[in-house]
Every structure is written in C-alpha cells, then in structure tokens.
Specification:
Largest sheet: 5 strands, mixed
Distance between the termini: 31 Å
CATH topology: Toxin ADP-ribosyltransferase, Chain A, domain 1
CATH class: Alpha Beta
Number of strands: 9
Helix content: 25-40%
Oligomer: single chain
Strand order of the largest sheet: 2-5-9-8-3
Length: 170
C-alpha cells in the first residue's frame, strides 16, 4: 500500500485500524509510513474534534497524550453535523502558527471539503479549561462563539442533550 492509499483508507474509516493498533501498543509498518505524510506548516488557529467523552483522559499535569493520530476539522460544524450520540466531548485545540499536520484537502482534493487536518500521534495537549454545555442556552452560546451554523435545537433533535468542551493548547 502506498502513502496516498493509506491516507484514503484512514479518512474513509470512522475508526481507523491504524489508530486502534497504536492505542493498543502496536506500531505497524503502516504507522511508520503514515508518519511520513506529516509536514510542518500553517494550520488554522483553532481545530475541532468531536469524540465520546469517555475517551478523554486528562492526567495530573492537565495534559492528554493520544498514542493515535487526531483527525480534526477547521470548523466545529463538520463533525458536529455527523455526530448522533450523547455524552460527547468537543476538543477545541488552539494551534501554533506552524504545526506538523496532514492537510487532507491538499493531499486528497477530490475526497471531501470538510477542512480536515490530521495531527501526529503522541501529541501532547495542555488543558486550559473545560465546561459542560448541559442545556440549550449553554449549547447555543458555545456554538455561536465558535461560529457554528448548526443550532442547539438541531443537536438536541439528533439526540445530543449535553456535551463537554475541552479547551486545549498545542
């Protein structure tokens, strides 16, 4: 499998095998090949990642380190529209001007236009603060602040009654 095929496989999967392997301590040849796709360059000042809240493990130093790759979006809306479960977390990641990343749109221009960026494995994110959006007012305030076109009522209609927001610095 070449680099482009590996990236296509990664972005098409809701739970990429390569991430499951890394989270289980398995470093495959595919992970080493995937690592070669990352380049240092400009990324948006904020990236977003929606995921089940139970996967968030903040250590005593207020950091999280995921052994897998982090698929993120430049807009809170792209993943927000596709999430249909409760007990969610939205990671809001403040990035540095230049960060190692894969710009999916640049690498796969015909794939999608959801502003997807993939961040490297073993990335350490420092928690600044967290807040719970447990009602329509909180949810709407957060969505408005982040420039969302999705409303809290739409989220509620898809079964999302509350979520946690984690603000991280890269």
């Amino acid at each position: 499998m070449n680099r482009k095929e590996l990236l296509e496989q990664y972005v098409k999967s809701p739970n990429p095998t390569i991430n499951s392997e890394l989270r289980n301590g398995i470093e495959s040849k595919n992970a080493l090949l995937f690592d070669t796709l990352f380049e240092l360059g400009e990324v948006p000042p904020k990236l977003y990642r929606w995921m089940p809240n139970e996967y968030i493990r903040v250590d005593n130093n207020n950091t999280i380190v995921d052994p897998a790759y982090l698929s993120c979006s430049k807009s809170v809306d792209y993943f927000c529209k596709n999430v249909t479960e409760d007990n969610l977390a939205c990671l809001v990641i403040e990035t540095q001007q230049k960060t190692k990343h894969i710009n999916v749109q640049k690498e796969l221009p015909n794939y999608n236009d959801e502003g997807e960026y993939i961040l490297p494995r073993n990335l350490s994110l420092k928690l600044k603060r967290k807040e719970q959006c447990s009602n329509l007012t909180d949810m709407e305030r957060f969505l408005c602040k982040e420039g969302s076109v999705v409303s809290a009522k739409e989220l509620k209609g898809s079964g999302i009654n509350s979520f946690w927001v984690y603000y991280f610095v890269l």
